[in-house]
Amino acid sequence: MENKGKCSHSQCKKFPCEHTVIYSRDNLVKSKKFPCEHTVIYSRDNLVNDHNLTRIREPIERDAKTCGLCDRNRNICWKCSQCDKYICEDCKIIHSKVNLGKEHDLTRIREPIERDELLGLKSVVCNRHRNKICDVFCRTCEELTCTSCQSIYHNHHNLPSVDDIHTEFKIELTKFETHIDLDILSKFEKDEEILNKFDFIHRQKYEEAQRNIKERENFFIGEVKKHTQTLLNELHEKWDLISSDISAQKSKISEIKNDLSYLKNNINESKDSRDIEKMLRDIKSLGHSLSEISKIEIDYIQQSPQRATLHHENYCKILSINPDGQVKTFKDLSPQKPIALHTTVDNSLLIGVINKDSWKNLNKDTKSKQLIIKLSANGEELNEFEYKSFTLKKADGTNKLDIFDFTWRITTNFNEDICIVDLSTSSVKGRIVTLDKDGNLKWVYDGHPSNIPTEHFFLPGDIATTYLGNIIVCDTRNSAIHLLNAQGSIIAYKEKSDLDISYPLSLCFTDSKNLLVGCCRTSEDQNKAIIHCVKLRGL
């Protein structure tokens, strides 16, 4: 059924207008706006070409600009040439009142719109149907989809609208932000506070120790003054290690805080975004990033227990030095001079001593008194092993053996045997003498087996024992390492060609059971000495 009516177009001269045809409601195009009151246009092909249309305003762009000052209002009416910003009507008044903006040139680019129109979410084109816009989000597949895809790929899936999922994503991003503020950031801020306390405590100790050392320096002269300077150097090194460690941890926290700040900025940008895909990507990456950051641990500096270091000084005394640099006399051994020193597993001390008066004429004085003294951790004398003769049975007969000639190094093994580097006072050679814990002779190792040719006599520089009870001896003059079992039989013999170690002089095990080998300076290179780190297996 069709009806004709009167057209109100200014271009229509006929009544009724031949272009004005109102069809039944079933055929009516569902549209909110019409060219005129009675004219209904169904397609572009039916558009009347000779009608005049007047633009009442510029079209609103999908990604319209926001005000360069308030960042909220999209009703842009002005542009400041000096600031190079687009400004809304409200901010134009504020901009003109500010001192810096009074002389700026503002150019009106359009009349203000009565209300600031809100923009919708950013349209996302369907990957499968390029002429369709994604209007729902599939929770099951975690992707945006259009109406055509719903019946094909997303049957019985959870399909909220993009507006609903946008709200949910904003809530989830807000939870991430809250998690950062209340959990992660607060944790590292507490760690930073603890580090600041450590920094303050160690700095106070450093400054106090520095003051004490400098005050004592005024009372010492000569060698004592050199000793003071050595203590200062050691203190500075310790402080540098502590300070650098604290600085490194604080720097780590600073980097973490910068990363968290960066993530928060990303969260805010994502929350304000209309791009659902970007929000989804950000949520996935934020979960991973925050999980990794939460796993980071801050290492605190633990103060090591105070342990006295012992050394011989002034011929007859053993001194103790605590970590603050205070020097005390641990044991006065007069008239004996301490030569070798070893701390046992029970904190007892084994000290090899010689007569003070026979020190300068050691090679000539064959009757000089040689002792190994055992002291408790408090300096109380527990035992004494004196130079004497032993009868040692060998394959070629019974020999009389004098010990000790000159006690150069001492150590013990796991069954408390005392292993001694005993050097000759009459020739350049030495031997390894082993006693049980009561001072009874167990065995003597004189050096190279007969089947190993060597250039020089056996001259042991140092001795060390492994956790299995094996004994390692460095042979300095022959640039070799001897490995013995607990009964004194040789297990292995390694020369310079095997280990590339020249003139080994000292041995020490690290906490990780690696062997440190300190070497002498060679005649070819007098400017440096070398420390080798050797990893042992099965010893």
UniProtKB/TrEMBL annotation:
The keyword Endoplasmic reticulum does not apply. Keywords: Metal-binding, Zinc, Zinc-finger. InterPro entries: 6-blade_b-propeller_TolB-like (IPR011042), TRIM45/56/19-like (IPR047153), Znf_B-box (IPR000315). GO terms for molecular function: zinc ion binding. Coiled coil: none annotated. Residues 121-162 form the B box-type domain. The keyword Metal-binding applies. This is B box-type domain-containing protein. It comes from Mytilus edulis (Blue mussel). The lineage of its organism: Eukaryota, Metazoa, Spiralia, Lophotrochozoa, Mollusca.
